[in-house]
Design a protein that fits this description.
By secondary structure, this protein is mostly helical. The chain is built from ten helices and no strands.
Length: 224
């Protein structure tokens, strides 16, 4: 009964009616492109700090937007994400289930962080107004957003986060189904291989019954 409940959430197809392997490969390539673009922006910011440097006067606060330490940390995270996405893409393409696990763990971690954000907005709705006040004065549509009713603003943000969580949960299920598909297929290949070898060992060679019959002829016929 428990296995049938789990099998209801298992499917070999995902969005656009493509296979879960194809969907995981597309998802891994998409994340690779995004993180590669982010890495290029960070590297260009490290080589030319004045282009991306925002002072405290521009931000309206007493802090800087990104210092060298934060840029290095963000670059290291981007490199790690590129490695994880490349492993997932290679694992889905070559059908190595273990290579998909780091990307799946990242998805779970990202989903948990977004869930904590939604819970914090629901429990502490006043933090939205505090966050909007900390934004720079030249931030686009800052005054329009702050003029919205706080309750409506909380509902809109929660609805937006819920849509994001539903989409991320669907992507997690696609990657999980791809892992189950590859793992189950590899296990079935091993079982077929073992069964074939056992059958070959258990069955006697074709020449043995023939040679055995030749060595033991039937007794001669004796007339009464």
């Amino acid at each position: 009964m428990q296995s049938s409940a789990w099998t209801r959430f298992y499917s070999n197809s995902c969005c656009l009616c493509c296979h879960v392997r194809t969907g995981t490969i597309i998802l891994g390539v998409w994340y690779l492109i995004i993180n590669s673009v982010v890495l290029l922006i960070l590297l260009s910011a490290l080589t030319d700090p004045d282009q991306y440097h925002l002072t405290s006067a521009e931000l309206g606060g007493e802090f800087e937007f990104m210092d060298d330490a934060n840029m290095c940390i963000a670059t290291a995270i981007s490199l790690l994400m590129i490695l994880i996405c490349a492993m997932a893409t290679y694992g889905a393409y070559k059908q190595h289930a273990a290579w998909i696990i780091p990307f799946f763990c990242y998805q779970i971690f990202d989903f948990a962080l977004n869930t904590l954000v939604a819970i914090s907005v629901l429990v502490y709705p006043s933090t939205i107004q505090d966050y909007l006040r900390q934004l720079p004065t030249n931030f686009p549509y800052k005054e329009e957003i702050m003029s919205v009713n706080p309750t409506c603003l909380v509902v809109i943000i929660l609805l937006f986060i819920s849509i994001i969580l539903a989409f991320k949960g669907y992507l997690i299920s696609c990657v999980w189904n791809c892992y189950r598909y590859i793992n189950g297929r590899n296990n079935s290949d091993v079982l077929v291989y073992i069964t074939t070898n056992d059958t070959a060992v258990l069955l006697p060679p074709y020449d043995d019954p023939v040679n055995g019959a030749a060595k033991d002829p039937p007794p001669p016929y004796v007339s009464a």
